[in-house]
Design brief:
The complex is a heterodimer of chains A (about 300) and B (about 450). With about 300 residues, chain A is mostly helical. Helices cover about 65% and strands about 0% of the residues of chain A. Chain A contains 13 helices and two strands. A two-stranded antiparallel ribbon of chain A has the order 1-2. In chain A, helix 1 packs across helix 13 and helix 3 packs parallel to helix 7. Chain A is globular and about 70 Å long. Chain B has about 450 residues and is α/β, with parallel strands linked by helices. Chain B has two domains: about 180 residues, D-Maltodextrin-Binding Protein, domain 2; about 220 residues, Periplasmic binding protein-like II (D-Maltodextrin-Binding Protein, domain 2), CATH 3.40.190.10. Chain B is built from 18 helices and eleven strands. In chain B, strands 1, 2, 3, 6, 7, 8, 9, 10 and 11 form a nine-stranded mixed β-sheet that branches. A two-stranded antiparallel ribbon of chain B has the order 4-5. In chain B, helix 10 packs across helix 11 and helix 10 packs across helix 17. At the A-B interface, helix 2 and helix 12 of A face helix 3, helix 4, helix 11, helix 17 and helix 18 of B.
Amino acid sequence: MTPWIIGFSVFFGYPLVMSVYLSFTHYDLLSPPKWIGLANYKYLFNDDPQVGSAVKNTLWIIAVFVPLQVVFAYGVAMMLARARRGVGFFRTIFYLPALAPPVAATLAFVYILNPATGPVNIILQKLGIEGPLWFQSPGWSKPSLTLLGLWGVGNIMIIFLAAVLDVPQHLYESAELDGAGPIQKMRWVTLPTISPVILFSVVIGVIAGMQYFTQAYVAANVASGQASQAGDQTVNNLGYPESSTLFYPVLLYQHGFRFFNMGYASALSVLLLVVAFTVTMLIILNSRRWVHYAGAVK
Amino acid sequence: MRRVAIGLLAVLALSAAAVGANARSSAQAAGKAENLTIWVGWSARELKAFKSIVAEYDKKHSDINVKVVGGINDDKITAAIRSGNVPDIVSSFTSANVGSYCKSGAWIDLKPLLSKDKIDVNMFPKTTQYYTQFNGKRCALPFLADVYGFYYNKKMFKAAGLNGPPKTMSQLTSYAKKLTKRNKDGSIKVAGYNPFLGFYAGNAPDLSAYAPLFGAKWIDGGGKSQLSRDPAWGRMLKWQKNLVDWYGYKKLQKFNAGAADEFSASHAFEIGKLAMMIDGEWRVAFIQAEHPGLDYGTAPAPVDDAHPELYGAGYVNGTIIGIPKGVKHKDQAWKLLKYLTTDSHPLALFSNAIRNVPTTKASLNSKEIKPDARFKTFLQIFANPNSKTSPITAAGNAYGTLIQAFTVKWQAGHAGDLNGGLKKLDKQIDAQLKQAQAGGVP
């Protein structure tokens, strides 16, 4: 118990308490924090013009990317569960992208989807289609990030695969005896049995969506063409293009580490914590209606 | 036997320690070299040049060994200061952060050291004095400045029948149209002038490089943002948008995506894909190193048609350098800092190597500065009384982020009414500055 308490206090408890305290201060990282009451929260809710776009972008990722990720991972898992030949090969192929470091994967996607020199648009052009501007366009930047996320869905896919393979065969057999077709079997057998895994991936996906940072940070810097200026921060590329990739954690980073404004960044993080906690609780409470645990007694 | 061995080892260890201690004390007595670390943002060719400047000093001073670390940015500087494990001298390309460094005391106050050595800060030109202090607290000194001017491809000018660079924005527009070449599908092959905000340093989306060319002022006498009240901003944005629209927003985006990195040898101007541009003086050295055969000229950038008298002015900022809180070798650090920033010799040598503008009045006229007609343009822009830098605020360059958020929407045609947008922007900047000044955010 003791090592756990030490770990919990040092790595979770202390930072949490400090974040809450710092959110009521002006703290520039360099001089001691100065108590300013609710000023940070007032600025957050009334005046900060960037919060609106950051929240909208983050909601977009949660509303579009998370469900797509779950459906895609489930779809791939179902295909792999049915494969007769080369099972090991296909499992490896679909899982492999999950091992690519996020920065490298993002760099590769920005390169592949470069509207002028990227192979995707060159091929599209040869087919007579004018490709989109991908990471350069505010309308396409989030879908591009979604593509990147779906490509790297291996971790969730592997959990789904294990769950799908774990569905007892006798349930399918009895459903078949009752005359169930493939869709009915999925609706009444597969989905209820794997519902705990769906719940898990939704909760994890929503939390990861609220913390979406690395890919957005790298893509914005690289796509804007400014990534190589090591020391020059006069141009702020976060959120490029047109604030379309300014997700909530990116905004938090900007205030904390670009503008030396850790007090305000802490206020942003406290709000994030409250929202993440509330949303997770709502999902879990709601899940009681649709998640079935094997052996559970209602 | 074992005991004897242990005893012998103990004696040996003790005598080694004694010898070590003796060596240290005699070294200290003889003023044996202390290790001094200096952090700079430069990398590659420019870093090599800086190292050679420092090596010259190092050679003459046996009491120190200077270690230069390149590729540093402000995140690393802040992290080091917070951890207490700091270098002896730090420098940053982001002069806007001087507000944070001075206000917090993260970079030490240099006033006592300057007064002790009787150094008058008026030896530095006014603009550089401004961006190295905050509210009268001087925690940095200028170490070479960046001055923005105009570059044009002479060969392309000749082919288009143009003599000499444009002097007004309307001329720039007409020259840009003449010099632009398109592919069969309408995409841009060669851009006469690329006005896209975010494309290379001359088009910083906070409009910093354009402001002095239109005489635009960010803040009024009362410290309030005046983007909607100073008509220069509106004229600037309308001029810029007209030219973007002439090219086609999407076509420019595609051109930008295909253009090489700004600091690569395939820079669009250097390889003839761009006929004119606004850029910093450093490009002279980059072209010399990467494409010495390029036939180009430099001049002051064209100015607002309504203010032809501004011709000759440009945007100025530069590298700031100081000593971090918690420094281990303060005296030696100050000596080196003083040498680098106030002595004409290193300033001239480094300026020759990386073609940045030297930052003392004396060094601007130093005989050691290698004459170069193209570089001279920038020395003249630097000396022009209308040349300006952007405001240093308690919020650092955070206001630039708000301006940028608006201007990139504006050029895409997503911002709606210009004056309404600028009014809203003023309110946002005022709220931001008010909070920062009250010790609030940001």
